[in-house]
């Protein structure tokens, strides 16, 4: 089995597990959303599971990560508490942000997931600052910054890249290029023949591109790239092509709006990270059983998490004003 | 660092001494900003720091105000308290995304579950010498709009040192505003480390006839007319606001309840401002005690012009301030009774100031 990709079965199963966890958590949110109990915007990552699944095996809890409005997958990949994430989306006091942040402001400090922002580009410099903290501590950790293709259109992105290179910080920029900023295509936002990763390279850091949908194919390379950043305490940028299946924000698909070519969607669905990994692993009967076991575990986590969220209480009135200012 | 030291030092020296002491006491405190290591060292306020604490803790930065503000937040979350300095507050406006969408509400939106937001942002504001529309803005009202930020605006060297020390220890973000015209003012400052509350206004003089509340450079303007007010038998109470956010409601209300009259002097624009906030607070909480409508003395809702000829009409001078306060007591004065606190020229704070800023 460990042939072309150089991955052990154990590694493959772990990547699959994260992939499955993300897919099923997101699908469950999508299924239950209409009941009106998750009363905040949700930006689901169905279709985009490949990259965070691969990274879940490379990063450790002492590595930092910050993310975007579409943060669920990154939070899960970093080992963030799913119970607390679902409770947060439900607005409950047991949520990771006490119900004050919602889906777009997730945090799990114990796992190094320091926050996510709804404003495109906003979390990038914060991740760079965390990288500077790592450098000052002289620890061998990384600060991972998740961003999308639209974030590279913001000024703060370039300011942050410049500073990371200037100070040679252990920062890993993970750009998930899903081709759309809400409904606006990359074609309307960036010059046609310019590749993001090539443009970034000109700023003086290592920069790479992979098709994000098949994590087995790039895992080893990704591991090496990050290992080098860790060892040498230096920045790198990696662009992954990827695709979201559902609407920008919300639980439904929005293909009726016709802003994406049907062919494009079909092309990406053929490369579905979750289904393809599953298919590959299920080719072997023994593995089929392992997959079953993994998915059983995943379903259990999800059931427990939603139950936890549903049963939890809303924050009390006295919590409304708490932590506007932190007490000493 | 300033080696020679009397009991009386300047505002700038007090700031410098405070940063020095705090960096000795907290080995993790990081200080950065454009110009902090340049030959002029932010008007001398960062003198000697890089030499003493090294370029890892005291460093120059690219012209990237927005990113640097986020970087400061990240550093703090990673365990390093941060002091950022901006030589001109106006440039800091580029950092509003990080300030408003992240820093101000980081504690709240993660309910205190992310790292500590120990970030202090020094912003220097000013007036005069043709600073004009974009080099002179006193924006304390703007910063004070946002829950989660603390905003202080010290007047004396003593307060500057104590407030900065408290800011650098506070687990909340602090906007620390320094008026350029106060930089050379001298005051008694103990050499030891001490802290002043970020949420308490200071009563400079007790009185019962009227409450005078002033911010920043308006405080010495009032001090300049103390004797004249006394000459006219006005037993005034003078409060140096110091803290713009949160406002020290108790001190203000107690005073106005006692005096029944209030005049507010602020270096910011008039509308939607610190002064309007105080008027509204006074109306809400002291309505029955008021014997005269609240009076405001601020700059008008006009950007600061550059011309020497125009700024003459833009700022309030000691004589106008005196006149306005006396009019509350129906006392009329005609001739110029009092000279400006600053100098012969209305657009500089004193003879020491030779421009350009």
Topology:
The complex is a heterodimer of chains A (328) and B (357).
Chain A: H1 9-32, H2 50-56, E1 64-67, H3 72-77, H4 82-89, E2 113-116, H5 124-137, E3 143-148, H6 155-166, E4 171-177, E5 180-181, E6 184-185, H7 196-201, E7 206-211, H8 215-232, E8 236-241, H9 262-270, H10 273-282, H11 285-311
Parallel strand pairs in A: 1-2, 1-3, 3-4, 4-8, 7-8
Antiparallel strand pairs in A: 5-6
Chain B: E1 8-10, H1 11-25, E2 30-33, H2 49-53, E3 58-59, H3 65-77, E4 82-86, H4 96-102, H5 106-109, E5 119-125, H6 140-143, E6 150-152, H7 157-169, E7 174-179, E8 186-188, E9 202-205, E10 210-214, H8 218-223, H9 226-231, E11 236-240, E12 243-245, H10 249-259, E13 262-265, H11 274-286, E14 295-297, H12 308-311, H13 318-328
Parallel strand pairs in B: 2-3, 2-4, 4-5, 5-7, 6-7, 10-11, 10-13, 13-14
Antiparallel strand pairs in B: 1-8, 6-12, 9-11
Question: Describe it for me?
Answer:
The complex is a heterodimer of chains A (about 325) and B (about 350). Chain A has helices at about 10-30, 50-55, 70-75, 80-90, 125-135, 155-165, 195-200, 215-230, 260-270, 275-280, 285-310; strands at about 65, 115, 145-150, 170-175, 180, 185, 205-210, 235-240. The relative contact order of chain A is 0.16. Chain A has about 325 residues and is α/β, with parallel strands linked by helices. Chain A contains eleven helices and eight strands. The longest helix of chain A has 27 residues, at about 285-310. Chain A is globular. Chain A has a single domain (about 10-245, about 250-310), classed as Rossmann fold (3-Layer(aba) Sandwich), CATH 3.40.50. In chain A, helix 1 (about 10-30) packs across helix 2 and helix 1 runs parallel beside helix 11. In chain A, the strands form two sheets. In chain A, strands 2-1-3-4-8-7 form a six-stranded parallel sheet, sandwiched between helices. A two-stranded antiparallel sheet of chain A has the order 5-6. In chain A, about 45% of the residues lie in helices and about 10% in strands. Chain B is an alpha/beta fold and about 350 residues long. Chain B has two domains: about 10-190, Thiamin diphosphate (ThDP)-binding fold, Pyr/PP domains (Rossmann fold); about 200-330, 3-Layer(aba) Sandwich (Rossmann fold), CATH 3.40.50. Chain B is about 30% helix and about 15% strand. In chain B, the strands form three sheets. Chain B has a seven-stranded mixed sheet with strand order 3-2-4-5-7-6-12, with helices on both faces. In chain B, strands 9-11-10-13-14 form a five-stranded mixed sheet, sandwiched between helices. Chain B has a two-stranded antiparallel sheet with strand order 1-8. In chain B, helix 1 packs parallel to helix 7. The mean pLDDT of chain B is about 95. Classes of the chains: A alpha/beta (about 325), B alpha/beta (about 350). Chains A and B meet through helix 5 and helix 6 of A and helix 3, helix 4 and helix 5 of B.
């Amino acid at each position: 089995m460990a042939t072309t990709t150089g991955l052990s079965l154990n590694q493959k199963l772990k990547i699959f597990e994260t992939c499955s966890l993300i897919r099923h958590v997101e699908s469950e949110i999508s299924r239950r959303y209409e009941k009106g109990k998750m009363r905040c915007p949700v930006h689901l990552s169905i279709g985009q599971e490949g990259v965070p699944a691969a990274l879940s095996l490379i990063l450790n809890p002492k590595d930092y990560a910050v993310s975007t409005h579409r943060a669920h997958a990154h939070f899960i990949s970093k080992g963030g508490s799913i119970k607390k994430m679902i409770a947060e989306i439900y607005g409950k006091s047991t949520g990771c942000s006490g119900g004050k942040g919602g889906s777009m402001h997730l945090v799990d400090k114990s796992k190094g997931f320091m926050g996510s922002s709804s404003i495109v580009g906003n979390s990038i410099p914060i991740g760079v600052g965390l990288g500077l903290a790592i450098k000052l501590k002289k620890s061998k950790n990384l600060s991972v910054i998740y961003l999308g293709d639209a974030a590279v259109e913001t000024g703060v992105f370039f300011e942050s890249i410049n500073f990371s290179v200037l100070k040679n910080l252990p920062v890993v920029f993970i750009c998930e290029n899903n081709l759309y900023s809400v409904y606006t295509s990359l074609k309307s936002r960036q010059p046609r023949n310019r590749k993001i990763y090539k443009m970034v390279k000109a700023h003086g850091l290592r920069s790479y591109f992979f098709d994000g949908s098949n994590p087995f194919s790039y895992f080893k390379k990704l591991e090496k790239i990050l290992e080098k950043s860790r060892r040498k305490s230096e920045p790198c940028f990696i662009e992954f092509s990827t695709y979201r299946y559902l609407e920008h924000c919300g639980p439904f698909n929005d293909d009726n709006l016709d802003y994406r070519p049907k062919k494009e969607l079909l092309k990406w669905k053929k490369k579905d990270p979750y289904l393809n990994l599953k298919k590959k692993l299920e080719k072997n009967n023994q593995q089929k059983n392992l997959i079953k076991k993994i998915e059983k575990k995943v379903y259990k986590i999800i059931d427990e998490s939603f139950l936890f969220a549903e049963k939890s209480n809303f924050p009390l009135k006295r919590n409304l004003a708490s932590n506007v200012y932190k007490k000493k | 660092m300033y080696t020679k030291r009397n009991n009386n030092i300047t505002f700038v020296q007090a700031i410098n001494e405070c940063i020095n002491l705090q960096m000795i006491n907290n080995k993790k405190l990081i200080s950065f900003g454009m110009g902090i290591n340049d030959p002029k060292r932010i008007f001398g306020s960062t003198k000697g720091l890089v030499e003493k604490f090294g370029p890892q803790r005291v460093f120059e930065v690219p012209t990237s105000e927005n990113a640097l503000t986020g970087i400061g937040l990240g550093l703090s979350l990673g365990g390093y308290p941060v002091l950022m300095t901006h030589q001109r507050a106006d440039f800091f406006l580029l950092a509003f995304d990080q300030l408003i969408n992240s820093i101000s509400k980081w504690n709240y939106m993660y309910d205190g579950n992310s790292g500590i937001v120990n970030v202090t942002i020094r912003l220097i504001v000013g007036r005069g010498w043709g600073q004009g529309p974009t080099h002179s803005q006193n924006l304390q009202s703007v910063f004070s709009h946002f829950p989660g930020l603390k905003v202080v605006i010290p007047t004396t060297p003593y307060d500057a040192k104590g407030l900065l020390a408290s800011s650098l220890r506070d687990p909340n973000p602090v906007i620390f505003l320094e008026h350029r015209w106060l930089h050379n003012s001298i005051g008694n400052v103990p050499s030891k480390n001490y802290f002043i509350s970020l949420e308490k206004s200071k009563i400079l003089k007790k009185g019962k006839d009227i409450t005078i509340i002033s911010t920043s450079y308006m405080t010495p303007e009032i001090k300049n007319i103390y004797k004249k007010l006394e000459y006219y038998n006005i037993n005034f109470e003078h409060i140096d606001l110091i803290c713009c956010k949160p406002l020290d409601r108790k001190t203000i209300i107690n005073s106005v309840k006692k005096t029944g009259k209030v005049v507010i002097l602020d270096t910011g624009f008039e509308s939607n401002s610190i002064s309007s906030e105080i008027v509204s607070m006074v109306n809400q909480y002291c309505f029955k005690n008021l014997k005269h409508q609240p009076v405001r003395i601020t700059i008008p809702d006009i950007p600061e012009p550059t011309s020497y000829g125009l700024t003459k009409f833009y700022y309030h001078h000691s004589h106008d301030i005196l006149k306005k306060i006396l009019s509350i007591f129906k006392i009329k004065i005609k001739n110029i009774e009092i000279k400006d606190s600053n100098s012969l020229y209305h657009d500089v704070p004193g003879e020491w100031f030779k421009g350009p800023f």
